[in-house]
Backbone:
């Protein structure tokens, strides 16, 4: 893999290149995949929410998962992180199968996520929310909990780490405030900071910019870029194409539960299937034919 410069407003970004092997197409192999999935499907009644034949997520890069509403992006996130179970398929993280592994164990393995609707515990303080995200807390076990000398040192270590992250995310002045008092953007920052308490390898962000005040957008963008600079892999769902173009090294496009395109951002944005999904500019190309769900007779389907 190599890098080339791109521009993010106010700060230079570095795009990682050379992530794939062979011709770019849906399901193209990656040089060093951190996630690999095969024949993963999920149905809700008669609705096919996810139907991914093969997909690999490159390690050490920022990958954007985009697509129109209802494309299956969040459902795929839920499947990968153990919050839902697929009907069929296999998938692994860093070479280890995740089939049947519950969400908390997936997080302990180094794959953590945030949510489109933040999951901060409103009646706990910001600092308490952070400390809950830490791993290997001996005081959580009944046997150790009654002997404070066995876990006090670890508790102090966790608190110091939490305060350091809060300062980095500019939430240190809010450490004693209830999470319920934070703005939507501050809650997004809290979730991202709390995710880092687990020392993750892969960070999955579900619409990190949704509902965020424009004043905090730049801060969030910089934090996402910093995750990669610190050696983490990032996979995020986003509808803001401006953000995707500027920070994503690789883009995966879903429609009707399937992967219809992937590649570098600039190339993907020119793909007719992507333009049709978002803008409807190519009315002579039915998106159903792109996903393989509809086969039209010759000269049919034009509008």
Residues:
């Amino acid at each position: 893999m190599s890098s080339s410069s791109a521009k993010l407003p106010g700060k230079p970004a570095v795009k990682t290149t050379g992530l794939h092997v062979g011709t770019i197409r849906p399901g193209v192999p990656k040089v060093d995949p951190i996630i690999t999935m095969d024949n993963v499907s999920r149905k809700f009644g008669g609705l096919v929410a996810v139907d991914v034949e093969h997909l690999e997520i490159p390690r050490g890069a920022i990958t954007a998962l985009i697509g129109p509403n209802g494309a299956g992006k969040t459902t795929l996130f839920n499947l990968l992180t153990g919050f839902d179970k697929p009907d069929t398929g296999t998938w692994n993280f860093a070479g280890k199968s995740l089939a049947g592994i519950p969400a908390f164990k997936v997080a302990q393995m180094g794959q953590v996520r945030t949510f489109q609707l933040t999951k901060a515990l409103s009646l706990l303080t910001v600092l308490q929310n952070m400390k809950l995200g830490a791993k290997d807390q001996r005081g959580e076990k009944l046997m150790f909990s009654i002997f404070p000398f066995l876990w006090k040192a670890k508790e102090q270590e966790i608190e110091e780490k939490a305060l350091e992250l809060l300062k980095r995310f500019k939430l240190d002045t809010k450490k004693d405030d209830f999470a319920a008092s934070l703005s939507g953007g501050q809650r997004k920052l809290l979730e991202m900071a709390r995710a880092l308490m687990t020392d993750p390898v892969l960070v999955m962000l579900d619409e990190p910019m949704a509902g965020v005040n424009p004043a905090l957008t730049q801060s969030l963008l910089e934090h996402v870029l910093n995750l990669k600079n610190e050696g983490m892999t990032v996979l995020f769902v986003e509808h803001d194409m401006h953000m995707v173009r500027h920070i994503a090294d690789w883009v995966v496009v879903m429609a009707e539960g399937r992967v219809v395109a992937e590649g570098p951002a600039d190339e993907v944005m020119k793909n007719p299937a992507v333009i049709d999904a978002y803008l409807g500019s190519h009315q002579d190309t039915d998106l159903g034919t792109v996903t393989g769900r509809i086969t039209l007779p010759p000269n049919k389907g034009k509008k």
Summary: Residues 152-168 form the longest helix (17 residues). The longest strand covers residues 33-44.
